[in-house]
């Protein structure tokens, strides 16, 4: 849903990413982990038109720090036309993403990316909007608050059977700043969204699938391979039609039925004229 909004353990084995070749992107020392200058907070690998982006802060539940925001923006804006689909996941077995780094938030300094601040938090959340392809979320563990928002920014979500989801904004005394209060009710219904938002309770993977928050569940050790297989199925199609169709679905999601039908007809004619 990225173009529209612009729009407790997991067994994911990140080692399987090693089969991918590294992207020719250098994140530099400023994007290294806060505790060391040797461990990158984000890893990127690529095989043909499919890339895997992994948030690499397992010791901090893959929470979103300033360095992660910078790395995300640089990674997604750095993909060329050779990359059509990105699989986004988290390192380790505990979390996909636990939201914003609360220690950095307590410092009083902003930790969001520059484009989030200057263009709009919802429009460029986490830097994903700069990428015009498809993003598949491989939800390997806990996705809470900003981590849930990050998952919602993905076009497609596949989860581990041990994943869990929650909205902790009420518990920490914050209102969501991106798409959570608008997109979540559309996906799972107003009453269910309010249950998650107002109680701060976590829901398990089976509930998330039943409510429509994720497409399907996969055993932890097969999650990344399943997400990459889906990515390859998408990437084998013409780049132009995938980008146009993905955008059209997002545009129509926010329209009335009648307006969406008219928009589809207009988009189809324009696409045919261009190609």
UniProtKB/TrEMBL annotation:
Stored PROSITE patterns: ENOYL_COA_HYDRATASE (PS00166)
Family of the protein in this entry: Belongs to the enoyl-CoA hydratase/isomerase family.
Name the UniProt record assigns to this protein: Enoyl-CoA hydratase-related protein
Species in which this protein is naturally found: Sphingomonas oligophenolica
